[in-house]
Amino acid sequence: xxxxxxxxxxxxxxxxxxxxxxxxxxxxxxxxxxxxxxxxxxxxxxxxxxxxxxxxxxxxxxxxxxxxxxxxxxxxxxxxxxxxxxxxxxxxxxxxxxxxxxxxxxxxxxxxxxxxxxxxxxxxxxxxxxxxxxxxxxxxxxxxxxxxxxxxx
Length: 153
Fold this sequence. Notes:
Shape: globular
Order of helices and strands: HEEHEHEHEHHH
Structural class: alpha/beta
Radius of gyration: 15 Å
Number of strands: 5
Number of helices: 7
Mean pLDDT: 89
Distance between the termini: 46 Å
Strand order of the largest sheet: 1-2-5-3-4
Oligomer: single chain
Low-confidence stretches: none
Helix content: 25-40%
Strand content: 5-15%
């Protein structure tokens, strides 16, 4: 991804070589996103959050578009983490850009994916989530991961 694209996308991060995360892109960002080499965009937004994006013909830009709606903590589930993993693990989808409004939900779901799918520790999962934008949801993600972690004596 080129530096000029980073100036156009809010909270742009690159937590992994084939993964970019950000806040909400504008409809006119998509041609630049595609020109930068991104093949797939995953939105974690609810449809009512992104009426302009919902009307934008992403298919015409040569991008694949997926939606995993995450409204808040109630949608931070292992099932949603696995759905994201399925998209990220398909090599023909890469590189992938995952966004929500700020990248907080993106980081939260990346932490859950790292824990439930990739099998990393709670602390490693939180580090991965923070690299992807986890901020305000960190206490809830920590609670969820700690509750699911194997208990030691």
